[in-house]
């Protein structure tokens, strides 16, 4: 069974440019999470989806960050415009309905110059 | 709010030896889950072991075991017969489970297994 897939693995952009990250969860997992991991820190939740509904986006900086999961499967996280402080690893995870264990993708390392 | 503390930023162990990583947490909940994740340089966060708070028996997975002390809010990870491939960052995480399935992570412990 395939794990959580994320792309791209690396992204380098100039500040003020837009950027998007894509995530495909484990097949059958209805819950999807986006986490932000700063260097030397543990991941922090940005947003959680139950199917296509964002049920917890309290930590998402909505002035520049947006996310969508239109058909309840794949998800896209967007930053526009990117700032220097957005340089970090963006992790996607998924879990089964009612499940307590989250499975993570390989992450996208974003560098903003 | 829940917090997770890992007081050992770095640790080192010789190959084939045993090492214990510490984790403490703070919560007022009675039902929750605790996890140890491993993150090698490839950045993939890999689940090592999982503990349900309502179970008194400590979880084990091959060479990995935990010492779960609910009253003390302590959740340490023991790695036996350490291997070079165990070199990684290890994160302790607290999970609410259920309708608010959010993980709270510690700051991690960088484990280096020496040959």
List keywords for this structure.
heterodimer, A: mainly beta, Immunoglobulin-like, seven-stranded mixed β-sheet, B: about 120 residues, four-stranded antiparallel β-sheet, 12 strands, globular
Q: How would the blueprint of this fold be written?
A:
The complex is a heterodimer of chains A (113) and B (115).
Chain A: E1 5-7, E2 10-13, E3 19-24, E4 31-37, E5 44-50, E6 53-56, E7 65-68, E8 75-79, E9 88-95, E10 103-104, E11 108-112
Parallel strand pairs in A: 2-11
Antiparallel strand pairs in A: 1-3, 3-8, 4-5, 4-9, 5-6, 7-8, 9-10, 9-11
Chain B: E1 3-5, E2 10-14, E3 19-21, E4 24-26, E5 33-39, E6 46-52, E7 60-61, E8 64-69, E9 74-79, E10 88-95, E11 103-105, E12 109-114
Parallel strand pairs in B: 2-12
Antiparallel strand pairs in B: 1-4, 3-9, 5-6, 5-10, 7-8, 8-9, 10-11, 10-12
Protein described:
The complex is a heterodimer of chains A (113) and B (115). Helices cover 0% and strands 49% of the residues of chain A. Chain A has 113 residues and is mostly beta strands. In chain A, strands 2, 4, 5, 6, 9, 10 and 11 form a 7-stranded mixed β-sheet that branches. In chain A, a hairpin with a 2-residue loop joins strand 5 and strand 6 (53-56). With 115 residues, chain B is mainly beta. Chain B has one domain (3-110): Sandwich (Immunoglobulin-like). In chain B, a hairpin with a 7-residue loop joins strand 10 (88-95) and strand 11 (103-105). Chain A binds chain B through residues 31, 40-45, 48, 56, 89, 91, 93, 95, 98-107, 109, and chain B through 4, 33, 35, 37, 42-47, 50, 52, 91, 93, 95, 97-98, 100-103, 105-108.
Q: How would you summarize what this structure contains?
A:
Chain A has 113 residues and is mainly β. Chain A has no helices and 11 strands. Chain B is an all-beta fold.
Largest sheet of chain B, described in full?
Answer: 6 strands, mixed
Largest sheet of chain A: 7 strands, mixed
Strand runs of chain B, count = 12
Helix content percent band of chain B: under 10%
Estimated helix fraction of chain A: under 10%
* Classification by helices and strands of chain A: mainly beta
Give the name of the CATH architecture of chain A: Sandwich
CATH topology of chain A: the name is Immunoglobulin-like
CATH fold name of chain B: Immunoglobulin-like
Strand content of chain B: over 45%
């Amino acid at each position: 069974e395939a794990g959580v897939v994320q792309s791209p693995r690396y992204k380098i952009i100039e500040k003020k440019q837009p950027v998007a990250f894509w995530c495909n969860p484990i097949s059958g997992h209805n819950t999807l999470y986006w986490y932000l991991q700063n260097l030397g820190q543990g991941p922090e939740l940005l947003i959680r989806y139950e199917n296509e509904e964002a049920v917890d986006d309290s930590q998402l900086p909505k002035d520049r960050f947006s996310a969508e999961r239109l058909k309840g499967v794949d998800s896209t996280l967007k930053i526009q415009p990117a700032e220097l402080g957005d340089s970090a690893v963006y992790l996607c995870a998924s879990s089964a309905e009612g499940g307590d264990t989250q499975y993570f993708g390989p992450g996208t390392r974003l560098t903003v110059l | 709010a829940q917090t997770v503390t890992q007081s050992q930023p770095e640790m080192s162990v010789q190959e084939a030896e045993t090492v214990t990583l510490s984790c403490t947490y703070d919560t007022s909940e009675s039902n929750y889950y605790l996890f140890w994740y491993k993150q090698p340089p490839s950045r993939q966060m890999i689940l090592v072991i999982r503990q349900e708070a309502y179970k008194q028996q400590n979880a084990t997975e091959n060479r990995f075991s935990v010492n779960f002390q609910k009253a003390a809010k302590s959740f340490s990870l023991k790695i036996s017969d350490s291997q070079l491939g165990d070199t990684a960052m290890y994160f302790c995480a607290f999970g609410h489970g259920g309708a608010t399935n959010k993980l709270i992570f510690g700051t991690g412990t960088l484990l280096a297994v020496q040959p």
